[in-house]
Amino acid sequence: TFIFEAFAREIDFNIIKFKKIRSQWYGQTDIIFEKIKSVLTSIGKVVVLIDEADTAFGGRSDTTHETEKRLFGNIIQMMGNPQNRGKIIWILITSRPDMLEPDIKRSGRAGLHLPVFDPQGEDRLTFIKGILKEINININNFEKAHLQEFLDYTAVYSLADFNELKILLKTKSEVNKRNLKCDEIIEIAKDFNPSNISKERRYQTLVAASECTFKSLLPPDLRDMERVFIEKELLRQELGY
Predict the structure, then answer these.
(1) 8 and 47 Cβ atoms separated by less than 8 Å
(2) Per residue in 177-218, pLDDT tens?
(3) pLDDT at 43
(4) What confidence score (pLDDT) does residue 164 get?
(5) How many CA atoms are closer than 13 Å to the CA of 240, on its beta-carbon side?
(6) Which of the residues in the chain have pLDDT under 50?
(7) Could you tell me the residue ranges of all domains in the chain?
(8) CATH code for the part of the protein at 2-105
(9) What would the 3-class secondary structure string for the chain be?
(10) pLDDT tens by residue, 31-60
(11) How many CB atoms lie within 10 A of CB 78?
């Protein structure tokens, strides 16, 4: 979300986030959408940011309420309107792009699929340095062996896990009323046991790779994999193999 908010600011577009566009009253949802549509087309130069997009739209399945179907149809019609091209940019953020309706993912609507993967290599190290710098910890001061030990123990951390570690380190430092020593930092990292969601994260990574528009945006370990092999691994995970 932060990346795309920064993108909107960089290109000098306003940011609009959809909230409470549905109503319990009959016909009111359609009226709300028409008001939103009028505002967006009047403003122009706007980025419509929809977080958790896989749950934001009802779709067109047989079990979907008629109001949801109309809302979905109105939205994709607006997304695909060539008159809005360059004036209204739709950004749908989701960790499960495979759960988006095919109609919304096609070219001319949300046809540009850009994955955001966990940083690797030097990028990951830069991220770690940056997040620890926020609490006045400079891992450049670690001895080489200590730095490697810290990186080894945190190799399975997600970006959210590092944020949690940062809070733990800051709390410990405030309790002790002093800066933490290198061995204390490593000990806290060893003691912290992040949620075991490695399988889910791997699945989401593979889904993002299979949906990605440009191979050049994939990390090296996925760039050379043919889509058919990625889809086979996804199927194995779905079946629990």
Answers:
(1) yes
(2) 999 999 999 999 999 988 877 788 888 889 999 999 999 999
(3) 86
(4) 94
(5) 0
(6) none
(7) 2-105, 121-191, 198-239
(8) 3.40.50.300
(9) CHHHHHHHHHCCCEEEECCCCCCCCCCHHHHHHHHHHHHHHHHCCEEEEECCHHHHCCCCCCCCCHHHHHHHHHHHHHHCCHHHCCCEEEEECCCCHHHCCHHHHCCCCCCCCCCCCCCCHHHHHHHHHHHHHCCCCCHHHCCHHHHHHHHHHCCCCCHHHHHHHHHHHHHHHHHHCCCCCHHHHHHHHHHCCCCCCHHHHHHHHHHHHHHCCCHHHCCHHHHCCCHHHHHHHHHHHHHCC
(10) 888 888 898 998 889 999 988 888 877 666
(11) 19
Which residue, chain included where needed, has tokens 């699929």?
113
φ, ψ for residue 149, nearest 5 deg: -65, -45
The four Cα atoms 25, 71, 97, 110 give a dihedral, to 10 degrees, of -150
One-letter amino acid of 18? F
Q: Whole-model pTM above 0.90?
A: no
Tokens representing 137 are: 């910890």
